[in-house]
Design a protein that fits this description.
By secondary structure, the protein is an alpha/beta fold. The chain has 2 domains: 10-150 and 215-256, Vaccinia Virus protein VP39 (Rossmann fold), CATH 3.40.50.150; 152-212. The protein has 6 helices and 11 strands. The chain has helices spanning 10-21, 30-40, 55-60, 72-82, 124-137, 217-226; strands at residues 44-47, 65-69, 92-95, 108-113, 138-148, 158-167, 173-183, 188-199, 202-213, 229-235, 250-256. It has a 7-stranded mixed beta sheet, with helices on both faces. Bound molecules: S-adenosylmethionine.
């Protein structure tokens, strides 16, 4: 069996990501990141920029953005979305892996890891690689912003349930059939997904798995400190309120020491 990796599955998911996201997180985190990044006024790297859901609004707000992603299919959608902006405001898009950042030392004033990006690193060694490289590409006192999806380890397990249905992004009817598994020993939450697309008389099934590994906020703080970051703020809602144990948003803002 192939080793489970956090970057697996996203190419197949790409055609459905915005459709599903519009029914879940949507744009709830956009004003928070816009406030935080326009305040920094720095060249900013988004790790795992995906379809440009955050990248493009940040660039539109005047932040000089670079988006990095390993999935060519996700990046293709970000490229289409970026074309809505005037040429001079468009973000740079780079294909690569967040564990080995293809950028020179001290080339960014801010790095953001939004919407569970850390959780795509399924081993402790992957996280250590990213932390070392984020530290390297940030200039001194540069901001590192991390947003974790808090409830993943608490998702109940289920098998092949219809979790969403509606008009699909290419017309016709789209149904998401989903299974959830928890691997508590390795701290993994695994989603086995099938998008069933019915257009006219034809039915196509798009099947893939996504894997996430969740650390607690205190564990993330500890890893950041060990990698040379000073944690500045723990945030528990997108209005900027303080983090608590039962907060439904887990944002950590840290600076390179
Ligand atoms: C949850 S999506 C987030 C997309 C975007 N940041 C947003 O908030 O909508 C995670 C993205 O990370 C990318 N990704 C996962 N593992 C990666 C890795 N090791 N290197 C680069 N990109 C990765 C996936 O391709 C996917 O586009």
């Amino acid at each position: 069996m192939t080793r489970r990796e956090g970057w697996h599955g996203w190419d197949t998911y790409a055609a459905f990501y915005d459709w599903e996201n519009a029914r879940t997180l949507g744009r709830r985190d956009v004003p928070f990141w816009r406030r935080t990044l326009t305040g920094e006024g720095a060249r900013t790297l988004e790790l795992g920029c995906g379809t440009g859901r955050l990248l493009v609004p940040m660039a539109r707000a005047g932040v000089s953005m670079v988006g990095l992603d390993r999935s060519a299919e996700m990046l293709a959608r970000a490229r289409t979305r970026a074309r809505r902006l005037p040429r001079a405001a468009r973000p740079a898009l780079v294909r690569g892996d967040i564990r080995t950042l293809p950028f020179p030392d001290r080339s960014f004033g801010a790095v953001m890891a939004p919407y569970g990006m850390f959780q795509s690193l399924v081993r402790e060694s992957d996280l250590a690689m990213l932390l070392a490289d984020a530290h390297r590409v940030l200039r001194r006192r540069g901001l590192f912003g991390i947003d974790l999806v808090p409830d993943l380890p608490k998702w109940r397990e289920y098998h092949e349930q219809v979790s969403m249905r509606g008009r699909g992004p290419r017309g016709g009817e789209l149904t998401l059939v989903e299974s959830v598994r928890q691997d508590q020993r390795r701290r993994l939450t695994i989603f086995d997904e099938t998008f069933v697309e019915r257009i006219g008389r034809s039915t196509t099934r798009h099947t893939f798995s996504l894997t996430f590994r969740t650390l607690t906020v205190p564990e993330v703080v500890e890893r950041l400190a060990a990698a040379g970051f000073a944690v500045e703020q723990l945030i528990g809602d997108y209005r900027g309120g303080a983090w608590t144990d039962d907060a439904d948003v887990w944002v950590v803002l840290a600076r390179k020491r």
